[in-house]
Design brief:
With 708 residues, the protein is of the alpha+beta class. It has 4 domains: 163 residues, Glutaredoxin (3-Layer(aba) Sandwich), CATH 3.40.30; 331 residues, Alpha/alpha barrel (Glycosyltransferase), CATH 1.50.10.10; 88 residues, no CATH class; 89 residues, 3-Layer(aba) Sandwich (Glutaredoxin), CATH 3.40.30.10. The protein contains 26 helices and 19 strands. The strands form 6 sheets. A 5-stranded mixed sheet has the order 1-3-2-4-5, with helices on both faces. Strand 6 and strand 7 form a beta hairpin. Helix 4 packs parallel to helix 6, helix 9 runs parallel beside helix 24 and helix 21 runs parallel beside helix 24. The longest helix has 19 residues. The chain is globular, with a radius of gyration of 26 Å.
């Protein structure tokens, strides 16, 4: 294989990665490093040549992945050492999350932290003996660089092989122990209070959010706190949600010109973001703002949710309706360049009056509020962030909130048009089943809460794409689609998140096919991922590639764990179909992780949302009526506007022979419309209240259930 990116003729030469579909792997296809994709060819060569594997894991929009590539993997001397010493393997963490999960756990066990790029050195049989993240080319500030590290590893591998193999065996054993489950008693209501108290202790009362810098949005934490507020009446839980959502919307972590959220804030006050944009963040943040709007009636939260949807539909949607993965932090070789502004540029685009309004509203500093990466001086560039919430700014300026919004929107459109002429950040256009499932769930929820049919249409197109293009002939899901190719076996998150999306889409459209698809995926998930001994789901299927361990990944991280979402799905499906076996499996998931939840409940917020659903106050609502009629829509609108998270809604159409959920939920087949009016049946604890036709009466029955 060629070990230089250019042949003597000057013609570009590529390594094996040029044949891959992953944008991240393609970014490294011209490196002089002799990269292999993950696969048998690499491991067989390592065994044959008696070389260790150098495994590098990252993703296409990762800033420090770009830095390490430009600094080291494009460097001929580093590449020469790597090619002599290792068989080098590149993995896209988004394309192969099962590999990333295992080796990231190794890194955390060895170093106490993790991140990307992830660097692992391991034996040809995939057992790791070195772990780290970003490694510089040359040693500096006490960190060993690759030019020094690689010869050290080579010397140890060649002359102290037994020590290496022993270390690899010990690391693999520690990895296996870290994934062991200690079964304990069932989780009960007191653990919800414990989690709330943990969040209360870590809450940043000044800036919102939890802990100090860096700050991640982690919207599923807010979803739990909303449910806890509803259950307990603890107003401080709601205040934590409101102040955090308002702070994030005002801060630089939000793109005030083109909408959508950046990955995280590098500082405590949400000003300076890491500028990449991920699809999963947009989905989960949209859910959080939508639910908060339902709970509080705050117009600002509705606006933000709808702006997120606008961004995703405009910039992150494939022509066939599925959703792309991410946008990079960098453009023109600089992180954040696409999003930054200086005062003179703004004044050149706007009238004097509009420029003054923008500068006062968004706290523009003539010297800039963005430090150059060196941190040595101000750049003159600004990250737009609201100086105060719009309502407070309107009071300060002495104009109505509505007038201020209109003026700021006019200014925003001018800035957006100007920004569109800039060099855009790289877009990772691969389509991932799990992240699409999250976005489908978000759009379907937004369609219900805001009465927007276009959101349901967008969710429907994406769901139809995934279910049509990312399934094998036997119905099993695939994980990744790009450039006409669907590949990589589906993992737990693919199934769990897609089922979530399909259930929300059923409740948004009452097209029974989506409920049928959710049930079919759930059946496959149980068949191939369920641990029949200890309970809970493995991340990989029973017929997946053999890795050092078969992990379960219980913790809710940047996205909720597949087990947490699956538990909630199972409870919803049990209530929709009357299949109690689903609820039994949901309880087994909570039992499987109960010891860990009791030790660190804050790390299981989505699982605790599922537990909150299971522990009571949940309702099954059956609406019987003519599809689209005024009285049917009045009942549905009443259900959808308010915050009633622990419910399932089933629609039984009257009249024409429309496909009905009755084929999956036999208990609804005898429910009738009263006096030819749309009728609601509110059921709890396996019993139904008297049927009602008045929306207010239906809501009163639901509120009575919550009080009980």
């Amino acid at each position: 294989m060629v070990n230089s990116s250019r042949a003597d003729s000057g013609k570009q030469v590529y390594n094996r990665l040029i044949k891959e579909k992953s944008p991240y792997l393609l970014q490294h296809s011209a490196n002089p490093v002799d990269w292999f994709p993950w696969g048998d060819e690499a491991f067989e060569k390592a065994e044959r040549d008696s070389k260790p594997i150098f495994l590098s894991i990252g993703y296409s929009t990762c800033h420090w992945c770009h830095v390490m590539e430009h600094e080291s993997f494009e460097d001929p001397e580093v590449a020469r050492l790597m090619n002599q010493t290792f068989v080098c393997v590149k993995v896209d963490r988004e394309e192969r999350p099962e590999i990333d999960n295992i080796y990231m756990t190794v890194c955390q066990l060895v170093t106490g932290s993790g991140g990307w790029p992830l660097t692992i050195v391991m034996t040809p049989d995939k057992k790791p003996f070195f772990a780290g993240t970003y490694i510089p080319r040359e040693s500096r500030f006490g960190q060993v660089g690759l030019l020094e590290l690689i010869p050290r590893i080579r010397e140890i591998w060649e002359h102290r092989r037994d020590e290496v193999l022993q270390s690899a065996e010990q690391m693999t054993q520690a990895l296996a122990q870290s994934s062991e489950i200690s079964l304990s008693g069932p989780l009960e209501e007191p653990v919800l209070k414990s989690a709330f108290e943990e969040f209360q202790r870590s809450f940043d009362a000044r800036f919102g959010g939890f802990g100090r810098a860096p700050k991640f949005p982690t919207p599923h934490n807010l979803l739990f706190l909303l449910r806890y507020w509803l259950r307990s009446g603890e107003n401080s839980a709601l205040r934590m949600v409101e102040s955090t959502l308002q702070a994030m919307r005002s801060g630089g972590i939000y793109d005030h010109v083109g909408f959508g959220f950046h990955r995280y804030s590098t500082d405590q006050q949400w000003l300076l973001p890491h500028f990449e944009k991920m699809l999963y963040d947009q989905a989960l943040m949209a859910i959080a703002y939508t639910e908060a709007c339902q709970a509080t009636g705050n117009e600002e939260f509705r606006i933000v949710a709808k702006e997120i949807f606008s961004y995703v539909v405009r910039d992150m949607t494939d022509i066939e309706g599925a959703f792309f993965s991410a946008e990079d932090a960098d453009s023109e070789g600089q992180e954040g360049r696409f999003y930054l502004w200086n005062e003179s540029e703004l004044r050149g685009l706007l009238s004097a009056v509009d420029a003054d309004l923008l500068i006062r509203s968004y706290d523009i500093d003539p010297d800039g509020n963005y430090d150059e990466p060196s941190g040595s001086h101000r750049s003159g560039l600004n990250i737009l962030h609201l100086a105060r919430p719009v309502r407070e700014l309107a009071d300060r300026f002495g104009i109505s909130e509505n007038d201020l919004r209109k003026r700021l929107e006019k200014v925003r459109q001018i800035l957006f048009a100007a920004r569109e002429k800039r060099v855009h950040p790289f877009k990772d256009d691969k389509i991932l089943t799990d992240w699409n499932g999250l976005m489908i769930a978000a759009l379907a929820l937004g369609a219900q809460a805001f009465g927007e049919h276009r959101y349901a249409d967008a969710a429907r197109k994406a769901a139809d794409f995934i279910m049509g293009r990312l399934r094998r002939p036997d119905g099993r899901l695939l994980h990744r689609y790009r450039d006409g190719e669907a590949a990589v076996p589906g993992n737990l998150d693919d199934y769990a998140f897609m089922i979530w999306g399909l259930l929300n889409l059923y409740e948004a459209t009452f097209e029974v096919g989506y409920l049928s698809q959710a049930l079919a995926l759930n059946e496959t998930l149980i068949e191939h991922f369920w641990d029949g001994i200890n309970g809970a789901f493995y991340f990989t299927a029973d017929d997946s590639e053999e890795l050092p361990i078969r992990a379960k990944n219980p913790f809710d991280g940047a996205v909720p764990s597949g087990n947490s979402v699956a538990a909630l799905n199972l409870i919803r499906l049990a209530r929709m179909t009357g299949n109690v076996e689903f609820e039994t499996k949901a309880e087994m998931i909570t039992r499987a992780f109960s010891s860990q939840v009791r030790r660190a409940s804050q790390a299981f917020s989505m699982l605790l949302s599922a537990l909150d659903f299971a522990l009571g106050t949940a309702s099954e609502v059956v609406i019987v009526g003519a599809p689209g009629s005024a009285d049917t829509m009045a009942l549905l609108d009443a259900l959808r506007r308010g915050y009633i998270p622990n419910k399932v809604v089933i629609f039984r159409p009257t009249g024409a022979e429309t496909p009905s959920a009755a084929e999956h939920a036999s208990f609804v087949k005898d429910m009738k419309a009263l006096d030819d009016k749309a009728t609601a049946y509110v059921c709890r604890n396996h019993a139904c209240d008297r049927p009602v036709t008045d929306p207010a009466a239906m809501l009163e029955l639901l509120r009575a259930g919550q009080r009980n």
